[in-house]
Here is the input.
Amino acid sequence: MDIAARLDLINWLVAQSLTGVAENDILRGFCERCRAAGLDLSRGLAFIDTLHPIFEGRGFRWNEIATNESDSFEYGSSNDGEAAQNWRRSVFHHMLEKGHDELSIDLTDCAHLDFNMIHDLSARGHRHFLAFVHRFGEAGTLGQMDCFYSYWLTRRDGGFTELQLAALRDLIPLLALTIKSAQQVDIVRTLGRVYLGRDASEQVLRGRISRGVTERINAVLWFSDLRGSTAISESIAPDEIIPLLNDYAEASIDAIYEAGGDVLKLIGDGVLAIFAGGDMSAARQAALRAEHRFRLNIARLNARRTGEGRPVTSAYVGLHVGEVFYGNIGSEDRLDFTVVGPAVNEVSRIASMCRSVDRELLASSEFCEGLDPEGRRYLGSTGRYALRGIGRAQDLFTLDPEIAASRPATKACENYLADELSHP
Here is the structure.
């Protein structure tokens, strides 16, 4: 690869880092351009640890011939079990232990080596293996994302030439920088979605980050919390409390997301969510779908936890509709993208009333009035109540008890919800 070809590839990598191309596309484009310039790559693999609540990192592959391998993959923790054993037998673990930044292996003479992938690569006809570890500086480290790992193969007899090795040494650091840049964008989006919620994250990433910038929106409000969570927490081992909260939070969040809602806050064992959009009738129906899914999730969860000998519970859900302020609220140093307004206080009080009237679901009259006629007939009044801290009494509604008592009524309600599921 001559100097002109290297400069062209450097310019292409810089352009990709600025335009935000996906990492697997970056690797594929890099390898294809290397081959077009005379560098006989047969396979390339790169991976980088990341900051994600589930995955430890992401990897990307390219092959000169079609394979059934995916061109990108995620991997979990390499600290335990088989994953840890594989990592300790890897070339990269060896390089980190020995302090090497580069390792070259002749795959025609590797029988004496015990690295976990070398013999398979040799059997596939590759002739030369070149691995790099590019470490980040302290200021460039984010969580476990402190290195860029890559290896490169050729089928060329005699392996990579000295000129090809020199070209890779020049180009791979810039490739690492380009993929790291793309990964940081992914990390920002992931952390925003996980910690702020899906819609709030998108709003923030679009630039709505100024303190006090809010908008008035009409929304269906959801507030749920667990039944008897304090008593359960006091009766179980401390290391069981977080798994309990996580299990039931997942049951509610999954249901809300599947129905098109957005979770804004986790408050202890409580969940604040909204269902918004131009069609408030559809938003109400979505909230009912979420509540139905939540109950199904709880039933499955309780069956599993009972089988494991762990405590189980249920949850209270309050549903309300109102105008709220949606946006950035807080101080210059700590902002929260959330909803505020009287309706938010009211939905919290409605959920609290579930204990007093012994119902797992309570909805306000504002919520019920906007449902279609069929939806309204599945809700029955529980009476009129004064809510703590709220200046006016409210009529509250719950699922008609006949739904649970009568199989035909149960089936009709399930069909109604199923119809709504197919017409979001």
